[in-house]
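the four lines:
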Amino acid sequence: MVKYEAIANEMRQRILTGTYPIESLIPDQISLAKEFRVSRMTMKKALDILAMEGLIYRQRGSGTFVMKTALLNQQDSAVNEYEGLTKQLSGKKVTSKVIEFNVEFPSEEIMKHLMIKKKQPVYKLVRLRVVDGNPYVLEHTYMPVDLAVGLTEEILEQSIYRYIHEELDLHFGGAFRKIHADKSSHYDQEYLNCKIDDPILEVEQVVYLKDGRPFEYSRSRHRYDTRSYTISDINRNN
Amino acid sequence: MVKYEAIANEMRQRILTGTYPIESLIPDQISLAKEFRVSRMTMKKALDILAMEGLIYRQRGSGTFVMKTALLNQQDSAVNEYEGLTKQLSGKKVTSKVIEFNVEFPSEEIMKHLMIKKKQPVYKLVRLRVVDGNPYVLEHTYMPVDLAVGLTEEILEQSIYRYIHEELDLHFGGAFRKIHADKSSHYDQEYLNCKIDDPILEVEQVVYLKDGRPFEYSRSRHRYDTRSYTISDINRNN
DNA sequence: GAGTGGTCTAGACCACAGT
DNA sequence: CTGTGGTCTAGACCACTCA
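prediction for all of em together
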């Protein structure tokens, strides 16, 4: 653990436990640097983390304050969507029903999203994710075979992401998503058990590896009444 | 303009114009620091920006590479949603029809979202935003009167955000959003001119000022066929 | 003018990858 | 072992706020 992370953790605790109350001025960087016995640059780097998290804000000339919203939003399940459902809903019982598992050559659209050639095979899979017995999301997924090599039905029924991380030792760098509303298709109605006029929340995403190679293109179709997508966007610049 | 931003701009140009091609190794930090006549820490800070933008990735021990995806995603209209429609769609003709403009005491829910007291009045307004003559989004907005003081119908018909920034000199720190799909109400059908079984994409958001005070709570209801919500999430950690 | 946070430096040490 | 990027330091200067 590097110093600035350790300090950020300590400072976060002080905010969450009220040692530094909401809207209060906290000590200046020089005092804090002295207290933690680090240089001021390192202290600032620790505070940068808390600012990114929306816990503090800084006003040049005035000082550093605890944000009014500091005690909210202590959940970040939004951004790490591609970590997989299994990890996100770790309290609940998540199972997967594999509806389709094939290999094929990519369509024009898939080629574009995964940045691959015409004759580079992809896995195509459709999975229904079931949470505590209720149908939750219907996922249509495409992955290049050479990146996700060695998939089996057994893996699909559990967590693909665990396999990717632990067995293949591949790590994600980010994702690009689009969110739409859509009418439900017969397919949705059948598997998600929704009514004919129920809308669908579709999340279309491309997940990238750390080096920027596209790893997965998927469309996740959610029942409109069980899922909302959450985004927090705090202190992005300065 | 600070040094690291200027250097980041120059490096970004080199990537976008192909001076540093896709997937290539770029010079090491020490060489670059020499070239730009800055310290290595400053050079690293410039590269940090490009990494956040998803243009490069760095491998300790190996070097810094241009991401395969560097030439994509050169649009970021997603994250700055609260900058307002007028700014986002600056090529098109955006008008607003004010459907409701009132002042009232907040409901329980509004009190919670805006973190205000029971007797603190709020503006309630409903606007239909029209882009190039087509109904685009129906916005239900609540703002504390003491923060958005002095709103007039005239301002509402143009850009609220311009008024807030330029006249009131208030600046945003971030936003917190939830995205749902929903069935259309009679209200939606009337103003958005959509069919009875058309779904709606609703974006519910709280916008915060830099000091964390909630400034606006709104629900924006979009036609499902004209709007998708885009999120890019690259290199968030490391 | 005193105190704050933001930037920048020159140099050091460390962790890691490739040889 | 060499070269890479990540961290950390001690000190300097600057921009800004507030009394």
